[in-house]
């Protein structure tokens, strides 16, 4: 059952247009999930009914939903309760192999001094092994910063609860009241990012 839902979710993600469509790792994951789905159908009894896939979030969540991600470095769970209050919070849904994601991360890293009062969470459904060196490679200035974390979305909660974007990187800015201020798909200028991330 878990594999059937994962296969459907991965099929949805394969429709993302920026960087995602040519990612061999994601394509392999989708093919593997499809094979597991076929095996699950073949071995299940005829009278069993397939559970519907979880609904996808077609519009960006108006406030930060409950979620459970995992810190890539430690594997420790990270939930809404772990977000420091009183400041803007930004979620960046990314693919480690996406050139646009890498470029945006580099721009944010070079301008970190202007982002010290913003919670920044890089979230990905990719293999944590691919994510482990992402900041070291593309955003060295963000490493070990108290307001920056790379999170693994093991159960594909982002696309179920936050939003299914059309492109990576997908940015979601929430205010200190946890309400959505703005969101967008794809790469933007650093001036735009800084203005939106820090807007009161």
From TrEMBL:
Gene3D superfamilies xref list: Glutaredoxin
One GO molecular-function entry: thioredoxin-dependent peroxiredoxin activity
Pfam families, sorted: AhpC-TSA (PF00578)
InterPro entries referenced in this protein's UniProt entry, alphabetically: AhpC/TSA, Thioredoxin-like_sf, Thioredoxin_domain, Thioredoxin_ResA/DsbE_sf
Top-level class of the enzyme under EC nomenclature: oxidoreductase
Annotated signal peptide: 1-20
Keywords assigned: Oxidoreductase, Peroxidase, Signal
Stretches assigned to the Thioredoxin domain: 58-200
Taxonomy, superkingdom: Bacteria
Region entry Disordered, spans: 23-58
EC number annotated for this UniProt entry: 1.11.1.24
PROSITE patterns hit by this protein: PROKAR_LIPOPROTEIN, THIOREDOXIN_2
Compositional bias of kind Polar residues: 23-51
PANTHER family per UniProt: PROTEIN DIPZ, THIOL:DISULFIDE INTERCHANGE PROTEIN DSBE
Protein name in the entry: Peroxiredoxin family protein
């Amino acid at each position: 059952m878990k594999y059937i839902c994962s296969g459907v979710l991965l099929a949805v993600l394969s429709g993302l247009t920026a960087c995602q469509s040519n990612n061999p790792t994601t394509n392999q994951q989708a093919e593997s999930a499809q094979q597991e789905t076929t095996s699950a159908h073949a071995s299940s009894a005829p009278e069993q009914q397939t559970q519907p896939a979880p609904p996808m979030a077609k519009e960006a969540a108006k406030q930060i939903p409950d979620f459970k991600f995992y810190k890539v470095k430690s594997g420790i769970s990270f939930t809404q309760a772990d977000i420091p209050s009183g400041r803007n919070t930004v979620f960046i849904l990314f693919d480690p192999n996406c050139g646009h994601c890498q470029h945006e991360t580099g721009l944010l890293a070079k301008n970190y001094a202007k982002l010290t009062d913003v919670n920044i969470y890089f979230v990905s459904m990719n293999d944590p092994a691919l994510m482990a060196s992402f900041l070291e490679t593309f955003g060295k200035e963000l490493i070990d910063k108290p307001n920056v974390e790379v999170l693994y979305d093991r159960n594909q909660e982002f696309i179920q609860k936050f939003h299914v974007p059309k492109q990576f990187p997908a940015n979601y800015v929430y205010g200190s009241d946890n309400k959505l201020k703005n969101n967008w798909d794809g790469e933007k200028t650093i001036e735009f990012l800084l203005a939106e991330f820090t807007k009161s």
